[in-house]
Specification:
- This protein is an alpha/beta fold and 251 residues long.
- It has 2 domains: 135 residues, Rossmann fold; 106 residues, 3-Layer(aba) Sandwich (Rossmann fold), CATH 3.40.50.
- It is built from 9 helices and 8 strands.
- The chain has a 4-stranded parallel sheet with strand order 2-1-3-4, sandwiched between helices. The chain has a 4-stranded parallel sheet with strand order 6-5-7-8, with helices on both faces.
- α6 crosses α7.
- The longest helix is centred in the middle third of the chain and has 19 residues.
- The chain is globular and about 55 Å long.
- The C terminus is likely disordered.
- InterPro entries: Asp/Glu/hydantoin_racemase, Hydantoin_racemase-like, Iso_Racemase_Enz_sf.
Length: 251
């Protein structure tokens, strides 16, 4: 089985760390490739960043058609997730939806702990899109930017643990979701310190793609995730042309 993990930002150090987390979660025999798009923001910390990143994620998905058994979009806003499902004939899983679904199997309510407060509305939108509003006890931010996560990992752990404890004690959370792909390496450390499940979305998404492929199912192509209608594209990535210019099969 081959899975492509896409870090939608363009910071190679974070892509490398996400790849390590994904490979650690993967079953024996699963091959993981982890890439960043050729263009886009260095970090994703708002709706404009997310839109730019989504555009380039689609370029990666379209450009690798037929090469992988599944895709993981490794940013907690799940940028371009539904659009990527239109383009791909194999499962595409976002790390936010993966973490939310898995957490809901082991906890009645959960909280997301993330980076700077301005990302909280973006993650709230992801909760709504995933139909998990009633499960989400809270979304808590820290002063950390995305690119500061790895600069001082001990500081990152302290800040994340402080907010996670508040989510458990004050908000009623029974599990903690790490609200940024760059936080993946600290999941087990936090889980040991908190005594509740702590979920990294990248690991969750890899396991879900493996399960979907192993079970022999993929994205429904009935209505919502049908391939795009054929039409002319202007100044768009060449990778998208085969999808948009295909000939409709006669009925």
């Amino acid at each position: 089985m081959r899975i492509l993990v896409i870090n939608p930002n363009t910071t190679q150090a974070m892509t490398d760390a996400i790849g390590d987390v994904a490979r650690a979660a993967a079953a024996p025999g699963t091959e993981i490739d982890c890439v960043s798009p050729p263009g886009g923001p260095r970090s994703i910390e708002g709706f404009a960043d997310e839109a730019l990143a989504a555009y380039h994620v689609l370029d990666v998905v379209a450009g690798t058609a037929g090469e992988y058994d599944g895709y993981v979009i490794a940013c907690f806003g799940d940028p371009g997730l539904y659009a990527a499902r239109e383009l791909a004939d194999v499962p595409v899983v976002g790390i936010a939806e993966a973490a939310m679904h898995m957490a809901s199997l082991v906890a009645h309510t959960w909280s997301i702990v993330t980076v700077i407060p301005r990302v909280e509305p973006m993650l709230a939108e992801a909760v709504i899109r995933t139909a998990m509003t009633e499960k989400c006890a809270s979304i808590r931010g820290t002063p950390l930017t995305v690119l500061e996560i790895e600069a001082d990992i001990e500081r990152t752990k302290r800040m994340m643990l402080d907010e996670a404890r508040a989510a458990i004690e004050q908000d009623g959370a029974e599990a903690i979701l790490l609200g940024c792909a760059g936080l993946g390496p600290i999941d087990k450390t936090m889980q040991a310190a908190l005594g509740v499940p702590v979920l990294d979305g990248t690991g969750c998404a890899v396991k879900l793609v493996e399960s979907l492929v192993g079970y022999g199912i993929t994205t429904a192509k009935v209505k919502a995730f049908l391939a795009p209608e054929p039409k002319e594209l202007v100044a768009c990535p060449a990778s998208l042309a085969p999808t948009y210019e295909r000939t409709l099969s006669p009925t």
